[in-house]
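Weekly puzzle thread! Below is a chain. First person to post its structure in token form gets bragging rights.
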Amino acid sequence: MLTPESARDFASARQQALIEEWINFFTGRPNDLLSFEEIKQNLRLQDSAYRGLQEVELDKIVGSTGRYRDFTRSFLPKNNMTQDRWRRIDTVALHEGYPPVELYKVGDVYFVRDGNHRISVARLNKAKTIEAYVIEYKTTIPISKDDDIEDIRSKMDALLIAEEREEFLKDTQLDKLRPQHTIEFTEPGRYRLVKEHIAFHKFLKETECHCEIPYDQAVTSWYDTVYIPTIEAIRRSNILADFPDRTEADLYAWMLLHREKFEKEIKALGYVPNEDILEQLRRERATNSFARFMGIFRNTEDLQSMPLKVERTKFLEETRLNELRPNNNIKFSESGCYYLTKRHIDVHKYLKEVEQSRPISYDEAVASWYDNVYMPVIELIRSHNLPQKFPKNSEADLYLWIVSRREQIEEDQHKMGHISTEMLVEELEKEGSAGPVARLIDYFSEKKSKVSQDLEKVTATVLP
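Winning reply:
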């Protein structure tokens, strides 16, 4: 039987859930329950043992097997879908108490196998503990009640890295051969990657001398002639300042992983200078608003990653723009931009052919695009003094921002061809003056307004 008291209790629980979401949003504390299946997979849990009936502290229950999306971290209901069940348990608990729940224990925390609603009601009613049948999984990872999934993954990674480092030093004896070495990684799997690289270096040296060389000699040769020169290039570039949470060895591993892919993409298999690889890494670190904006397209487009000078050369060869319009000054500051611009030319060619009911040459399309699309936008950019407001970006960068932004808005609003360039230039102008702080304030204001509206809806729905 559903009682008025249970309705008030549920309304109170929903209001507290929304307030908790708001507070955790600003403090950065985890607000979601942990998924036991995800924890089990990440920690590779296997060995378990039944521990019987126990009294368990409620605030140590941090996750669930199936209902982890329906409750906040403190087991407050996130929606009204299970309102009737929650209220029935609340009514029964008032007179008969709580039947034992079933929990999994991992480290010092617990996950609900059965009894999410009982725990939710118990916590709302200020209970400190609850009876539970407990099954414990063994783990060497220390987990606390304040950890989120990223914290647990970080702890798991730290343990794996320590194990891999111990195995690496045991196999290579690098700490004895080169005691001054500082090879420290922040991601698992990197020490194994380096061992593979040493083995390949050994193979190359043996092929070169037509002889077999001892493993320790291969290790020192790799360290002196491969690793250290790469680290010196990293230091000269000062790129580590852009990655404060990474080590020199991390960047070496990144270069190792990306070199083959990079060389294939720019069709330069063989030797690519370390400086070019580092420049590619620097570009992948978004340092300004345009770079971050371009990151949106890299997630959805098959953009080629290559040095800008190579990318620009290919663009000019394919479009013949230097011959068609010798005074053009199209230069981008981010990789992938030339690809997107070529795509715009292709679209322009198609539209012109439809309009004129005849095929046109690619040269004609390029010239038409430059004269009728690109230059009018550039002139508008100049008239609004935008290059001075964005000194780190070229005029071509700003052109691409405007054109890509138009595509995005027209797609969202289903209004193809109805967004004026003038409006987009004014938006970009505001982007320069308002800055990210103003946009963040606007976002928080919208978030606060939504939470207030949700609170009003909950109260109106549950309490007539």
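Puzzle host: Confirmed. Bonus trivia for everyone else. Residues 152-285 form one domain.
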